[in-house]
Amino acid sequence: MKSRKAKSGAAVLIALCLALAGCGTDNNKAASTDEAAQTTDSASSSSGGEIKVGILHSLSGTMAISEVSVKDSEMMAIDEINAKGGVLGKKIVPVVEDGASDWPTFAEKARKLISEDKVATVFGGWTSSSRKAMLPVFEELKGLLWYPVQYEGLEQSPYIMYTGATTNQQIVPAVSWLLQNKGKKFFLLGSDYVFPRTANKIIKEQLKVEGGELAGEEYTPLGHTDYATVIAKIKEAKPDVVFNTLNGDSNVAFFKQLKDAGITSKDLTTLSVSVAEEEIRGIGTDVLAGTYAAWNYYQTTDTPANKTFVENYKKKYGEDRVTADPIEAGYDAVYLWAAAVEKAGSTDVEKVKNAAKGLEWDAPEGKVKIDGDTQHLYKTVRIGEVQTDGQFKEVWNSGDPVKPDPFLKGYTWAASLSEGK
Amino acid sequence: MRSSAKGGVGMQLRTWTSRRLWLLAVYAASAAVLFCAPLMLSDFRLNLLAKFLAYAIVALGLDLIWGYTGILSLGHGVFFGLGGYAMAMYLKLAASGGRLPDFMDWSGLTVLPWFWKPFESIGFAIAAGILLPALLALILGYVTFRNRIRGVYFTILTQALVIITTTLFVGQQAYTGGTNGVTGYSKLFGYSLASPETKRWLYFVTVGVLIGAFLLCRFLVKSRFGKVLRAIRDGENRVRFIGYNPAIYQMVAFAISAGLAGLAGMLFVLHVGIISPSMMGIVPSIEMVLWVAIGGRGTLGGAVLGAVLLNSAKSTFSESYPDMWTLFLGALFVVVVVFLPKGAAGLIGQLRGIGRRKGRESDERTSGVRNPAV
């Protein structure tokens, strides 16, 4: 007994020493400069002819399938910029971390990137949950996060740049388009988490004022794969449109079972906001052809910048790879940050934020502009129809880039949604 | 302790005191290292270590029921999470400053739900963070142990508890924050959680709580109560025939273990700044058991060691090899399972045993972990 105790005690001691030694070595020097670095500028990240930036996506776990592609496009953008001479004459060096599809891990790694690696900025996140987990860290340490995915809006952190669409650049125009072209009776189907719930809350308000009708609203847990009940409910409700905010694997199950139930895209219009080229590849074009999606970018979007972007992406990562909206938004983020740094002449977060205001760039999706007030992008809204080759055919676009309005202040019917802020 | 009654009393006593001295020295040195850590580590690393120490508290509780009582719980994530949520609710209300927490607002609530109200008081939150998990464990224990449900059946029930709880928390977005969990805190007792001083303070609190938890477990394990627990592990029916009621002991041990997990969850939230259902899911619940298994089941020091070592390894691997760290971690598990069946604490024993064969023999005689408990 005694000796066993003693041994385990000794083991604890040794482990602690190891852990401390492991941690301690590379940090003693960093610790002394901590205070200075935190308060004023990120001089250390831009010293020595290099600028460190963080890349923080899930490289393992359930979200890896989506996020790895975004990481790839961000790395590609960094390579391209470095090939042209870097930023401020310095090379961009990415520090890659794995968020592991786990929200507390995102917070931990974000903290590590800012306070240990002293990166100039971080590109990362996919799920709203991961963004919400990182947000307090960026606000506390005054770092800057570039978040590349469309999301549910109602957020505006001074330390986040949102390069994906907010609701008025995706969901709201999509609902209007459906009401005008496809029918009035809406069935809302979503995964049970914050994005679909918030999106549907907005849609319900919008339907009330734009003359739509709610035929049903269903949520299934993330990763849910049995849609027999939901499909039965859809059949009974006879909606004109299913507005689909399902995420991930559930889309595969839902669309396959919908097809098995004998409902084709001719009988029922479905519009998805989380199904892009990458997901089509996974679900199968035979099942999805004829359904709609709302995004700001498709691989088929016809701009000169997109031609080179798609070409380079395929050349770098393989012919079978596809580009999609978040992949493009991640790519944009790196270029926009680099442009802001050039303009500011510094990697200091406050200076970069200031320089970013009103910054324009010819992105693959067309012209984008950083809105200084909200730190979101002006983006063109595009509705596309899935073709048999797995690509989208654009059936409608907003013409000009739409001003971001994360709190939907420009819509009187949305007043009740944003009164908390 | 009373084994030195006859024969070589002097020798027994001598080894006993030397071991005791050595043990004391080890403990004192461990504590000293922990208390000096802030001098050696950067704020970020200290924060990480604090998180690992919070994990070590869960590991202690798990070891109490798994290593000593032979009950394998794959549901400790729930108890950990409940503690975390209790603290998170207080912090969220403190940060919202009288307004409705942001996620309730998105989800369409207009008034604060009644069960959130008491969490405005930190005292209530702390009490709830420990007692709620303990109570839940007591109830689960009452319906299972009393009906002599044990072994793998009990383990499956704890997994069911995990699924029920996470589904409930994800589904009730308006009341729990859904998959996002609860995050965005600012103050504890009026001190900013962001300031390095508060963080250092919280680190010391965690070290203190860990030492307290360790002493509590040590006391329990050494007491008559602990002997009964081990007897239950090694032969539940015999214990029953002798006249003890194993169910009561199991329930109490399970509740204490859950309370410790809740306590750890509260500390975790203070260090990490977020609690979400993903922290109480199946994977973390199993991970917690792994810390104990790898550190050395049936030794309290081993449990602490496992939690700290394994999480350090996880962080280090994932920072050095973000693309393939999971493989390294897997390899580590395989190595431990194949070569160190008694965990890392067992390794120290083996190393010592090479030098002192006699000691090793006596160790094997007394080691109770030979029989798999499940």
From TrEMBL, chain A:
Keyword DNA-binding: no
Low complexity: compositionally biased ranges: 30-47
InterPro entries to which the protein is assigned, alphabetical: ABC_urea-bd_UrtA, Leu_Ile_Val-bd, Peripla_BP_I
Disordered: annotated segments: 29-48
Listed SUPFAM superfamilies: Periplasmic binding protein-like I (SSF53822)
Entries under Pfam families matching the protein: Peripla_BP_5
Secretion signal span: 1-21
Keywords: Signal
GO BP terms: amino acid transport
Keyword Signal attached: yes
UniProt xrefs under CDD domains: PBP1_FmdD-like (cd06355)
NCBIfam families named among the record's database cross-references: urea_ABC_UrtA (TIGR03407)
Protein name (database record): Urea-binding protein
TrEMBL record, chain B:
Location relative to the cell: Cell membrane
Keywords associated with the record: Cell membrane, Membrane, Transmembrane, Transmembrane helix
Chief localisation class: membrane
Keyword set includes Acetylation: no
Any one cellular-component term (Gene Ontology): plasma membrane
Residues passing through the membrane, by range: 21-40, 52-71, 78-95, 122-145, 152-171, 201-221, 290-313, 325-348
GO MF terms, alphabetically ordered: branched-chain amino acid transmembrane transporter activity
Keyword Transmembrane found: yes
Topological type in the membrane: Multi-pass membrane protein
Pfam family, one: BPD_transp_2
Record PANTHER family: HIGH-AFFINITY BRANCHED-CHAIN AMINO ACID TRANSPORT SYSTEM PERMEASE (PTHR30482), SLR1201 PROTEIN (PTHR30482:SF4)
Record-given protein name: Urea transport system permease protein
Organism: Paenibacillus taihuensis
Lineage: Bacteria, Bacillati, Bacillota, Bacilli, Bacillales
